[in-house]
Amino acid sequence: MLAAGVTVSMPDDPTTFKPTYDHDFYPGQAFYNLGPTASEVISEIERLVDVGVSHFQVYFENLATTRRFIEEVVPAVRMEMRVNA
Asked: pLDDT tens, 13-52?
């Protein structure tokens, strides 16, 4: 089992998306957000699945992003590794 923690940011206006954020516990270290659109979040999660990630701990910036993730990402994301032909 390989697990990954990801933070998702899907703002109403994608132009306001911030690709990184700081955390008070880790000064000077940048953390990355997945986003800003559902298609980009899906692509990034599927890229992780293809390298063997099978479990995700997902953090959201707000309730609106949580709802958008449930409605737009969960039904569409592929959680099985792509088999190379």
From this structure: 999 999 999 888 999 999 999 999 999 999 999 999 999 9
Extract the tokens encoding 25. 């516990």
Residue 49 CA to residue 62 CA, distance in Å, equals 24
Give the predicted TM-score (pTM) of the model. Answer: 0.89
Token digits for 76? 């569409």
What is the pLDDT of the chain when averaged over all its residues? 94
Asked if 12 and 68 count as a contact pair (C-beta separation under 8 A), the reply is no
Contact 10, 37 (CB under 8 A): yes
If we measure between CA atoms, which residue out of 22, 81, 85, 23 comes closest to residue 53?
81
Instruction: Report the amino acid identity of residue 23.
Output: H
**One-letter amino acid of 30:** A
